[in-house]
Design brief:
9-stranded mixed beta sheet; 4-stranded mixed beta sheet; 15 helices
Length: 493
């Protein structure tokens, strides 16, 4: 997708009159935009939200609804888990990979319980029960789930506690979350203008952002923001030109978005000299059923294991795409397949079946001796209930018995990790990189100085993430830093 309009800023001196005025202008109405709008309005500012779609929601409304929260939330305590901000920060610092922002992780972890109560006060319901098995999205309304905290190497960093909090619904929770947040923003006094696309920022002579130029039904609008503009326009997975320039490994895969993540907000800010971070990074969902993977082995094109299979499945997806070119299979036996209830398999079936590991390898197109050795080593250790090579939990470790099967992750349906749309094969991806921002969401220029009047949150910004990803850190990051950006914009004079 490409912009038909220039993102170069318009000089305020060239605006003869504004069509609309507000204190705080939020561009984008997903979870970050709704959180920013609520906080700005609750601070007493007049707030207007723009969105190019016909209503609020965006990719947030299509998501599974997981929100990464911890430090001792009421749901964690009700399920019998002790947690503290230090343990949460230690996990996130490791799981979110090289380049993760330690200062933002520390603040996010320290304020996580308060953020839970903020969400609950906005009407988001959480059930105090735990889904206790690897999965992308639980098929129940359980309010708590593991996201790799109890898997190696992360379980060695601090006492593991589940931190995936889910709105109480047996379906995808993103829509319920967005319904609550949008209603909260509306009740706080924020108004919205839909079917309206921001095309560029308006810049005062002193370098302050004072509004945006937008288009609605083919008509140009100029909108003044007396205090600040908050960009919550999403990432850039829908812009193939940006992917080619920054994250080429994400090209050619199913895009997880609402179809509007074209990087427009990022580009508008870059046109003012804004800095960006981690633009090559992305989350990767693959058609891997976590319950099947945990009970078997995940191998690469060399017939070798490369990860503990009970980890967060997105970690396996990132490794599969970025390190193994998607040449990845789940190897298992009949018992492992049958132990996962049919509805939780999402229609995934073995792509190859054979009586021996050597025969299976030939069907997969991997070295037969290598796969046979991998199976032999796995089974030798599994007979004692251990996995010394990768540290998979004993709960999931047992020898695999013939006949053996392999599931090629390139051949199945996409997993329901971030979107309810299961079309497409192979990997399903979205971007993690975005604008460089302060703790309060101020967009920073290439020298690290704030651009006056400009803020960003959600996937348009780079906040917690380095190279890694954990489910719930999109909605958690977006709502938490969206709140901070909205508050900071409202207090700008």
């Amino acid at each position: 997708m490409s912009d038909r309009y220039s993102v170069a800023p318009r000089e305020a001196a060239d605006v003869r009159a504004y069509d609309l005025e507000t204190d705080v202008l939020v561009v984008g109405y997903g979870c970050a935009g709704a959180a920013a709008a609520f906080e700005a309005a609750a601070s007493g500012a007049q707030v207007l939200v723009l969105d190019r779609m016909s209503g609020p929601g965006g990719a947030s409304a299509l998501s599974g609804g997981e929100i990464y929260l911890g430090g001792g939330t009421p749901i964690q305590r009700a399920c019998g888990f002790d947690d503290d901000p230090g343990a949460m920060a230690a996990f996130l610092s490791a799981a979110l990979g090289p380049g993760a922002d330690s200062a933002k992780i520390a603040r996010y972890s320290e304020d996580s319980v308060a953020h839970f109560h903020w969400l609950a006060d906005r009407g988001v319901p959480f059930k105090p029960t735990l889904w206790d098995a690897p999965t992308w999205v639980p098929p129940t309304d359980d309010g708590l789930m593991w996201l790799g905290e109890n898997s190696k190497p992360f379980s060695d960093l601090a006492g593991p506690a589940p931190r995936g909090h889910r709105p109480a619904t047996a379906d995808f929770g993103g829509k319920l979350l967005m319904d609550c947040l949008a209603e909260a923003a509306r009740s706080a006094g924020a108004t919205a203008l839909f079917d309206t696309r921001a095309t560029c920022l308006i810049l005062a002579a002193d370098g302050t952002v004072v509004g945006v130029v937008a288009r609605r039904y083919g008509t140009e609008l100029t909108i003044r923001a007396r205090r600040g503009v908050v960009l919550t326009t999403g990432g850039f997975v829908d812009n193939d030109a940006m992917l080619a320039a920054h994250a080429p490994k994400l090209l050619g895969h199913t895009k997880v978005s609402a179809g509007t993540d074209d990087g427009s907000g990022i580009r508008m800010a870059q046109a003012l000299g804004a800095a960006v971070r981690h633009m090559s990074t992305g989350q990767v969902g693959i058609s891997l059923v976590p319950g099947l993977a945990a009970r078997g082995m995940v191998v690469n094109g060399h017939g070798q294991r490369f990860v503990n299979e009970d980890t967060y499945p997105g970690r396996i997806g990132q490794a599969a795409l970025f390190r193994h070119g998607m040449r990845t299979w789940v190897v298992l036996d009949e018992r492992a397949f049958e132990e996962v209830p049919e509805p939780q398999r999402w229609g995934v079936q073995p792509t190859h079946v054979a009586e021996t590991a050597e025969e299976l390898a030939d069907l997969m197109g991997v070295p037969a001796a290598a796969l046979a050795d991998t199976v032999r080593r796995y089974n030798d250790f599994a007979s004692g209930g251990v996995d010394p090579e990768f540290g998979k939990a004993p709960r999931w470790v047992r020898p695999l018995t013939p006949p053996l099967a392999a599931i090629d992750v390139r051949a199945g349906v996409r997993p329901p990790s971030e979107s309810g749309d299961r079309r497409g094969t192979g990997a399903s991806v979205f971007t993690l990189g975005g604008l460089h921002t302060s703790l309060d969401g101020a967009v920073l220029d290439v020298d690290g100085a704030p651009i006056p009047g400009l803020f960003a949150a959600g996937r348009a910004a780079s906040n917690l993430h380095g190279e890694g990803y954990i489910s719930g850190t999109s909605l958690g990051d977006g709502t938490f830093f969206g709140r901070r950006a909205g508050t900071a914009a409202a207090r700008t004079s």
